[in-house]
Structure formats: C-alpha cells, structure tokens
Design a protein that fits this description.
Length: 97
C-alpha cells in the first residue's frame, strides 16, 4: 500500500520542482536584477514568491510573469518592496553595459 501512495506523491514533487525551475528561468529572462533574489516555491500549481524588490512595478512584473508560466494556478505574493533594494538595483555598477 505504501508503494502506491509514493507513486502519487513523487509526480507532484517532480512537477513542483519543474514548475519552480520554469518560473525562475522566465523571471531571469525578464532582465530585472532584483528577480535573482526572489525565492520561488510551488505546490500543485500554487506558487509562492518571496523576496525584496526595488519597486511596485517590479513586484507587478514578477507576479504577471509567474502567472504566465504553464501550470501556475495561483500566485501567493510574499514579496516586499524595499527602498534599499531599489538602490542596489539602480546602482550603475550593477547595471548591464
């Protein structure tokens, strides 16, 4: 009986990890440096975004970007907009040439 239960659990774990990877990859493609600091967790399509961002615009882009990834059914926003994060993002030494 336990082997049957494990068959049902493992696909969700693999799917969750794959979904997290797809979201992280898509966020990285958006070219916001602050997205690199986000922590993404998924559980059966429910995605939790944690971290600090430099602006409300970045927060909205992160939410909408994660929502576009196939398999996402709901976004839980635990992100914080932080003025210090905005300074790091705006610092010219962190910008791309």
């Amino acid at each position: 009986m336990s082997s049957i239960a494990s068959v049902h659990i493992f696909p969700f774990v693999a799917d969750n990890a794959a979904l997290e990877r797809r979201i992280v990859a898509y966020l990285a493609s958006r070219n916001f440096l602050s997205f690199r600091r986000l922590v993404v967790r998924a559980n059966q399509g429910v995605v939790v975004l944690n971290g600090r961002l430099g602006s409300f615009h970045e927060r909205q882009v992160a939410i909408e970007s994660a929502r576009r990834v196939a398999g996402v059914t709901r976004i839980v926003d635990h992100m914080v907009v932080d003025a210090v994060a905005a300074q790091v993002t705006a610092d010219p030494k962190f910008s791309r040439p």
